[in-house]
Please model this.
Amino acid sequence: MKVVMLNYDFKVFWKGRLIYLHEFLATKQIHFHALELFGKGSAYSFDTYDNKEQWWTCLFPGNRADEVSKKEMKKAFFDKLDEIDPDIVIASSIVFFAGALGLRWAKKNKKKFIVFENAKPSQFKRNFLVQGVKDLLLEQADGFWLPSADYDTKYPKLYNKGIHFFYGYCCVDNSLFKTKEKNELNHSRILSIARLVPIKNMDNLLKAWQLIEQKGISYKLIIIGDGPGYDDLKNLLINLNLKNAQLLGAVDNKDIPPYFYNSDAFILPSLSETWGLVVNEAMAAGMPVLLSNKINAAHTLLKESVNGFGFDPLNVDEIAGALLKYISLDTKAKKKMSAASLEIIDTMDYENMGLKLVEALSEINSRPFKKPGLMAALLIKMWDGRYSTFAWNRL
Model:
């Protein structure tokens, strides 16, 4: 069996997953290929990784989407798919180029199609007509690869369309963040890691931290990350007269684990996250987690009062309250939360991802080709997908 995975780009968190899947699937006699469109223009363009793998192709490594004509893009994309000739196509949302064009190629060549989604439909408000068109296109998929079963409840119209649902691709290499030495959780330090953009809500975190300092609590807040909001946050930190909060700027990924080990808990106050893989990393390092209830990962990975606490990210008092609830715990309770994080995250790792994918590929490959109806076929031919970065850093 030959499988190809398609996306606008495969930066940051995708690198490790793709390399693992290529190696793991090879042991199951499945040939795995990755095909990305552009090397620039996404939220993670700061990642300068230049892959050399023969099975992994970037069609336009030096370009953004707006620098390549749609005609040129489609020709290169379809030519490469013709060359690979996969049995099963796995692609990102059909809203975007890779998903829309991947679906078109798959249907034209009578191949199976799996879509992976990490955003819940409820996060994007569409009018009746637009949502109806999207649903009709999604009905043509053979499989849906979702981060967790929690996402299932958001796709009620697709339950009876013969689509195979499976889960678990929102994972990291847990082994990179585990340590043989136990964290005694006695560092009096809370850690946060995020791109410094408005949607990460770091301004409200600093305001909440002011309430912590006003209570005379000696804990420190460490924020790792860089971005266009760095200077504004630095000024806010000064204006709030915070003594025990620090912005460290960017830290190389390989140097992140020690910051987890030398902290007592991890906090992420985002206003929205389609998942939030940094939560996986923190939990793999044994961190209790304090998470915004707008983070999709929180709905799966956070067990309230078991491995951390949740809060409304728009409510500064609630953020401060979650911090205070954790800080006030005794060491035994904090260690129990740490152990719970490790136990929960062990169910979401690379091996589980690989096994679930192999099971799904086998099931989907055994099914007959799903021929689209006339209206769906017309829409597939008309819809090329789009790409927009307008909302990646703000609501």
Notes: The first strand starts at residue 2 and ends at 7. Residues 389-395 have pLDDT under 50 and may be disordered.
